[in-house]
Amino acid sequence: MTRTGIFVGSFNPFTIGHDSIVTRTLPLFDRLVIGVVGDQVHKPDMPRAEERIKAIRDLYADEPRIEVKPYYGLAVDFAKAEGAHYIVKGVRSVKDFEYEREQADINRQLSGIETILLYAEPQFSSISSTMVRELQHFGVDVSQYLPHKDKI
């Protein structure tokens, strides 16, 4: 049986914190599916799902255990469709933990699918997609917060 996990989010943009979660999760699974929220979510200035998917696919092009796909609806439905028994989430703070704990409880009630919470590495605990977008808005070079294929 193939051990499959999913890691879902809008990934707008996909940061070094997200990459850390993927890197640390990969040894746990035979297959990791990164689910990118599809275009049904309308957030200001959000690149189309296909752009976000392509960027992440390019990043992990040399890793055959990683697949990157759009998803629509509930994460548990996406997990079922992918044959995954686990949802992977990263947490940076108590606030993140409480939110993800509640989501994990509901997801388990709805589907029996377990959630694995990985704590952010200390150097990434203040990095979020929101922070990166805000810095970009003000013209700050955010390349240090984005993963680069040559660093993986």
Strand order of the largest sheet: 3-2-1-4-5
N-end to C-end Cα span: 28 Å
Order of helices and strands: EHEHEHEHEH
Mean pLDDT: 94
Count of β-strands: 5
- In terms of structural class, how would the helical and strand content be classed? alpha/beta
Shape: globular
Major sheet characteristics: 5 strands, parallel
Strand content: 15-25%
Topology:
Elements: E1 4-9, H1 16-25, E2 31-37, H2 49-59, E3 66-71, H3 75-82, E4 86-91, H4 94-111, E5 114-119, H5 129-137
Parallel strand pairs: 1-2, 1-4, 2-3, 4-5
Explain this structure.
With 152 residues, the protein is of the alpha/beta class. The protein contains 5 helices and 5 strands. A 5-stranded parallel sheet has the order 3-2-1-4-5, with helices on both faces. The longest helix is centred in the C-terminal third of the chain and has 18 residues, at 94-111. It is globular. The two termini are 28 Å apart.
What is shown here, in short?
By secondary structure, this protein is of the alpha/beta class.
Note the main attributes of this structure.
single chain; 152 residues
